[in-house]
Amino acid sequence: MNFQIQCALVFSALCVRICLPQKPDMCAGVPGIPGTPGQMGLPGRDGQKGKPGLQGPQGLRGSQGLSGREGPAGPKGEPGKSGEKGPKGDTGPAASMDHELHIRLSELTHRVISLEGVLRLENQIQKAGQKLFAAIGNQVDFNQSLALCYDVGGRVATPKNKAENIAILNFVKKYKRYAYLGITHSETTGLFQYSDGMPANYTNWGENEPNGNGKEKCVEMHKNGFWNDKDCNQNHLTVCEF
Ligand SMILES: [Ca+2]
Predict the structure, then answer these.
(1) What distance in angstroms lies between residue 94's CA and the mean position of ligand 1's atoms?
(2) How far is the CA of 224 from the centre of ligand 1 (A)?
C-alpha cells in the first residue's frame, strides 16, 4: 500500500487537504496527538456600556401612608344665611321656677294666715277687710303715735268705714283708753283730713263734735266709738293699721 492510500485510510480528512497529488512530499509523517487543554485565561476587560433597556411593567400599588399633621387654620368664611324659624320649644326653666315660686308663695300665705289666726285669738290684732289693726296698750301723744306706727311699717289707725271703726274700738275697750286716729284738722281747708291730704269722707263724731273750731287739731276715739276733736298732746292709746 502506498503512502497515498494510507493517508486516505488513517487521516483521510487531513490527507485530502495536505496530501495533494501534485505535492506528495508534503504528507510526510503522522500528525501528533492533540495536547492537553490549556488553563483558563484571565477575565477579559469590561465591555462597552450597553444601550438602555426597555421600561419595565408598573409595580403594585403600595399601602396608604399615615395621616399628615393638621394644617394651619384657613381664613374666616362669610356668614351664612339665616335659617327658617323653628317650632316653638317646650316650656323651659322659667315655668318650673314659676311653679316653685307658686308653691313657696302658697306656703308663705298659709303661714301668714296661721299667724294672723294666733294673734287674733289672743286679741293682739283686729282685722277689718284687708286691714289689720294692732295695739300694745301704751300711752303717748299724737306725734309719738305717728312715729311708733311708722317705725313698724304701718300708720296710725284711720277708720274709713264702720267695720274699721269697730276694729279700733275693740282696742279702746280692751285697754280702756282713748285712742288717737289718723285724722287731723287742716288750717288750709278748715276740714279734717287723712295723712295723705284727702278729706275724711267717713266720720263718726260724737254729739256736738267737732267743736274745736280748728283749735283742736287731732281726733280721739272714745269708749263708745264716737269721735271728738282734741289737742294732740294727750296721752292716748296708740293703734296702728297695716
Ligand atoms: Ca272737741
Answers:
(1) 59
(2) 15
